[in-house]
Amino acid sequence: MATRDxxxxxxxGGPAGLTSAINAASEGLSPVLIDSGPRVGGQxxxxxxxxxxxxxxxxxxxxxxxxxxxxxxxxFATRVQCPAKARTLRIDGARKIITTDDEEFAAKTVLxxxxxxxxxxxxxxxxxxxxxxxxxxxxxxxxxxxxKSRICIVGGANSAGQAAMHFSQNPDAHVHLIARSPLEDxxxxxxxxxxxxxxNITVHEGAEVSEVHGTEKLTGVSLKxxxxxxxxxxxDNMFIFIGAxxxxxxxxxxxxxxxxxxxxxxxxxxDTNHWPITRQPYPFETTVPGVFACGDVRLxxxxxxxxxxxxxxxxxxxxxxxxxxx
Length: 326
Ligand SMILES: Cc1cc2nc3c(=O)[nH]c(=O)nc-3n(C[C@H](O)[C@H](O)[C@H](O)COP(=O)(O)OP(=O)(O)OC[C@H]3O[C@@H](n4cnc5c(N)ncnc54)[C@H](O)[C@@H]3O)c2cc1C
Description:
binds flavin-adenine dinucleotide; FAD/NAD(P)-binding domain; 6 helices; alpha/beta; five-stranded parallel sheet; elongated; 2 domains
């Protein structure tokens, strides 16, 4: 396998990685960005309407926004490889060796902007019906293509709320939003208000999916409530948004993480016994000097597009600084 040298390797092309690539490329760092795919853009590609990203007062769909990020990265001739999944990280002196299925990179600095992946719902029938009316996330297609249908959305945060609003635009559909806690606990108030005012959304709070039914295709969902009650719903489709977690098993413990696998970064590392050298860690630097982490995967991150993009841009002068001194 050929080894490719690079100054700055960005692993993960969501808002954090792409913004870092745009800023690094525009400032002459010649970054290489790899993403496991199938497309660059990360979680935000699944958002039907992003209303809190500055500059788009009417809101913008996730795919539209991320296509703009990609065009801007291409404008500065960022080298993007997708699909290319990072499989291993190994430290060899000052070089960080990253392997994908086809290539090996020897990088002076690395940015881990690998975001989060969906958590799996555990209930009888889930494995058998996955892809048969039951999916993680939701396809952003015209909701009227679902015709007269009963659609269950599982989850209590903004991603589930946005999906419920998206499908409610189909006047022939009825949407059931199933959440473990009151919506107000995790969802932005503007979405809660819209959902509560929507005639074709029924909210089931304090409820969990206990079983899914169907053979060739999803036909129904059983619910169990916190107070011990149970009920069932007829359902044609179910889209699941029950949270996400970092997918960091491939890092094999190379960088320090908390118990939930969020990556530790920044000056506070000196207060732990994880920081290995005498100089202070830079902001966004992990327990491996020269390896940085930004966006949702970083412990303490805000889990928003703008925050991830901001971190991706803020890390670039720090990469310059690191390269000047190492
Ligand atoms: C449905 C939905 C709706 C949302 N709506 C909003 C909203 O309205 N407003 C808002 O501010 N935020 C919203 N968010 C949250 C927002 O999308 C995230 O906070 C943001 O995308 C985080 O960006 P990131 O770059 O840190 O990570 P991600 O977007 O998760 O991107 C990480 C990238 O890394 C890649 N990757 C992972 N592992 C590897 C590997 N081993 N090798 C190579 N590549 C890898 C992935 O393929 C992915 O492309 C929403 C999220 C979802 C799921």
